Structures are given as C-alpha cells and as structure tokens.
Amino acid sequence: MNTNNQEIEVKFLIADLPALLEKLQNLGALMLRPRMLEVNLRFDTPDMQLGKRAQVLRLRQDDQAILTFKSPGEIIDGVISRTELEVLVSDFHTTRGILEALGFQVFMTYEKYRQNFKLNDLVASVDEMPYGNFIELEGNSPEHVRATAALLGLDWDQRINLSYTALLGLYNQNTGHTFQDLSFETFSGIRVLPEQIGLAYADNM
Fold it and tell me: Phi and psi of 152, rounded to 5°?
C-alpha cells in the first residue's frame, strides 16, 4: 500500500510479456507479490459526483481488501501525480455494504492479474488486463520513473497517464461497444488491437 499519500506513476502497453518478465529478472528485480487476480469495485453517488470531481473511490480484493481514495491527477514532467489514501479493511463484503448504506453504488467492476516487483527503488507492477498487458511504474519523482523506464528499454513517448477505466472508455468509443465492466468474461474471445485503445506498444524499440 502507498505510505506517503502521493502517487507518482506512469503506465506502458507491453507487446511481449515473457520478455519483459525476463528483463526484470535479469535486472535483479525483487518480487514483492506473486501474480494474483485483483477484483476492483469503483463507487460513486447515483449522480456521479465523484467522477465529476475526478475523484476515485475504490474497493479492491486480492490477498487482502483495501479501500482507496484518489484525488484528481496532475501531470508533472510527463507523469501523473495525485494524492492517494488507502486503508486495509478486514472484510471486503461488509465494507461494500457500508459504502452502499452511505449512498454510494458500484458503477464498474474491473479485473486484472498483477504481480509486483521492486526495481531501482520503485514499484513495478506487471498487469494483465482484459484488453492487453501493461507495466506500471510508481516512484518518488518523475525523474526516477523516467530513469527506470529507460532501464527497461521502454519508449517514453508511449507512456500512458490514463486510468484503466478511461482506456475502457476509449475502447468503447473506438469500437462502438458499450461495455460497463472491465472483466475477463466481458472480453472473452475478443482480440483487442493497440489502436482500439488509442495506444502503441512501448517495448518495440
């Protein structure tokens, strides 16, 4: 979990996931958490007040349950920076019930397989999403993040500062779909091209 309340991160779309994992290993990356399924619930008010303010309220379940709030993001030196507040909760379902009793509702479910590594003193998260594979770098400064991207041979010009849910919106816009959930079941049997989510691979240098 984030301990300094400030999130400085950037994502990249990856074409060759096995090669990326091999590169992380060769660079001496330390595995912080093995690959596991994450289920995320995004909450908002019925009139979507959080979304209008570019705020995020999320409940996540993997090997533990975490409630997260994120403030609106600001692009600084090419990476997104924003306040992130997280708390570990003991019961995923009860926490969902509390949020719903307070008037929030789930407007989106999204899933990913994630594994976390420590590399160059930052956290590198390898994400397998229903529409592609990504690496997310979260560090202490934009310069730190950019240097680590270079270490991995990633094209900085292909960095992504959009959320995974925003990329789903782009996919719907570009394909005519109206998917509400970013789940593996929703995308079963669908091959997503990079241009359908407005991206290009960052590891094709």
Answer: -85, 0
